[in-house]
């Protein structure tokens, strides 16, 4: 049957062009994302700052949860924290006592020089990596500093350096090349770090000797593992990039199966007479199924190879785009790795076979006489399976929409699921809804061409439904996702701003934060952070807010039990309702968690908040606890209760929360554009392929119109109106789904936000809808115009 399948593909190559393009694009996308993801997690980056020392000692940066399953079985779940734990006091002295050991103590403090965010280090750490003193000399006095060339200063200049302990005027002693950093004398750096040690570089002894001295707690790093002691600002970006790429690949898989399945199903319907002749000539149902699967196998192999080769070319520039857009660190690139290419080829082949499986099963059921009798008539589209699953999906969406208001904050995540259920249900029932809705929409358009167009849309059920479905899926998902995301962001920002009772908020002018020495700030300092809590036997990351005394006077916090005024010392915590429920915390009880530097703490729960949109899975921690674990950074913001601060910009609450989320919103928007853009490409393929194939089946209808006196212009006008009606039908159905989803979302937000409002980004949604309709119009008119170039007499004798 493979030889027959090959001949069929040669004869009907136009019918399978859409499948080939879809599979090639899918394989290309999978190869591109696979190569990029593999490049983010493959062999670790070499050390840059600690390039020279043989051994580097740093605090543990991992939290773990071990679960005992009984019978001696247990497993451990671990996650990497954002900062390492503080090294025990006296570690450097004990290491220096080793015979032959050379020890360098390194500290890092965020500072800001002339608007450039840098880290301050002791001069002794300059020898841990290659560097060159371009001009001047190393710092010798506590008020001297060596700067990188990027600052633009010269030896002898006075520069203002913003530090967590306040601004300092320092004398530029020298200009240094190498990893960008600010170098102070060792005593000055130790004072600025308030004694905290980030890492200890050791030479002259073995790693085993170092481990024997430091014990099991600290991490002893050698080789490329030394990079684990360095700040890795690109780590979170790579994780976000991998998540985005995974989502995009998932969308590509789903839509590619949809396109391939639809194309093969449409091809089988159009080939009923051909399949009937094969059956009449003695072909068994199994052989017919093997014919269709053989066609998909051949197309899948060729498309998979083409897509993988394209992926090799696309991956490097795609990785560069991720870096330029902020999804990956600067300089990130994709490299050649074999297994992502093999995986992309295999998945492409599976998608081809899975997409053709239903069509092959249907083709195998064709009986010779039955198929010959029905060859000229459109086959029943709405099967029992479509009715059952369509009603089930729509019923599930209706039930979920009804219970969303009663679930509060937990239900918000279910809104998009509800939209997906509704879209799937309507897509399955499209043969019922779409033709009738297109006919009703056609009543608004006058003229004979419009009358013929709406009748065609109503009677050509399969063609109308096959065109409407991809438009519904793409526009529906785009509208639901964009609108839900924008509405949630707006609600969260408004809820946060409404809590603020302080007159204004002071923000730092640089990366060092606002100094908050005792009595220096007329307000309540706060800082964003994270904590790690064991939920479902896994250390999960949650948001945390460090807050100074009097936070209940500048924030209106909805307290369910306890008192926020008791948030003080270093052993208390206030928990959001959702996190308290997930972790089993109660007011007066003990909360066990890890701070962002991997330090385990047990805190007394002094209050639990009411369910809320912005604080439901957040903890409030006392400022004194932050001072004990992060003494080198100032406040992210100060809620002012008195006069304004020097060297700080003052904003309103709305401006603060809008700026706080601006970067994340931009990345989210880019991610949505990337994912939905890919869905739009697949939709274009599905629409164009369906309409091009359908035009070949209706050439006789076009010939009848021409022989009846219609001009080519009138025929094209009818086809254009029909395309617009079908496109508008898909957009209207998507709009109905989105409206229902937004109604459920608004109902869910009512108890969480005062006067919630619906935000709809009309521009991107409108662009996607317009592109879908335009593709429908072009894909209908172009093949019809080409067909009409044939004289009507010859056109009427053309076989399907």
Automatic annotation (TrEMBL):
Q: How does it sit in the membrane?
A: Multi-pass membrane protein
Every ABC3 transporter permease C-terminal domain range: 249-366, 675-792
Localization annotation: Cell membrane
Q: Which InterPro entries match?
A: ABC3_permease_C, Macrolide_Exporter_MacB
Cross-referenced Pfam families:
FtsX
- Say yes or no: keyword Cell membrane present: yes
Q: Where are its TM segments located? A: 249-270, 291-316, 336-360, 387-417, 465-489, 670-694, 715-745, 765-788
What keywords are assigned to this protein?
Answer: Cell membrane, Membrane, Transmembrane, Transmembrane helix
Q: Which family does it belong to?
A: Belongs to the ABC-4 integral membrane protein family.
Matches recorded under PANTHER family: ABC TRANSPORTER PERMEASE YTRF, MEMBRANE COMPONENT OF TRANSPORTER-RELATED
What's this protein's name? ABC transporter permease
